[in-house]
Amino acid sequence: METIRIRDEFIKLGQALKLADLVESGVDAKIEIQEGFVKVNGVVEVQRGKKIHPGDVIEYNGQQIKVVDE
Predict the structure, then answer these.
(1) pLDDT of residue 55
(2) SS3 of 3, please?
(3) Fewest CB within a 10 Å sphere: which of 22, 33, 46, 52?
(4) pLDDT tens, residue order, the chain (70 aa)
(5) 3-state SS string over 22-63?
(6) Please, what is the Cα angle at 13 between 9 and 14, to 5 degrees?
(7) Which of 41, 1, 62, 69 lies closest to 13, judged by CA?
(8) Which strand ranges, in their side-by-side order, compose the sheet holding 2-6?
(9) How far apart (Å, rounded) are the C-alpha atoms in residues 40 and 30?
């Protein structure tokens, strides 16, 4: 499982997908999230602005990314 490091209290889901290089743009993130292709902690998430905190795990396209503190 790969990780992404954040220095703030949280990151929005769309931003996290871009930071992890899982999508190329915010528009791509929005579409993939709204279509139900992204899970957060095992649950499908359709809100692009969902706050993702350290310890959360994002699943997309067969990959898992854990968010950790910087």
Answers:
(1) 98
(2) strand
(3) 46
(4) 999 999 999 999 999 999 999 999 999 999 999 999 999 999 999 999 999 999 999 999 999 999 999 8
(5) CCCCHHHHHHHHHCCCEEECCEECCCCCCEECCCCEEEECCE
(6) 125
(7) 41
(8) 2-6, 63-69, 57-60, 38-40, 43-44
(9) 15
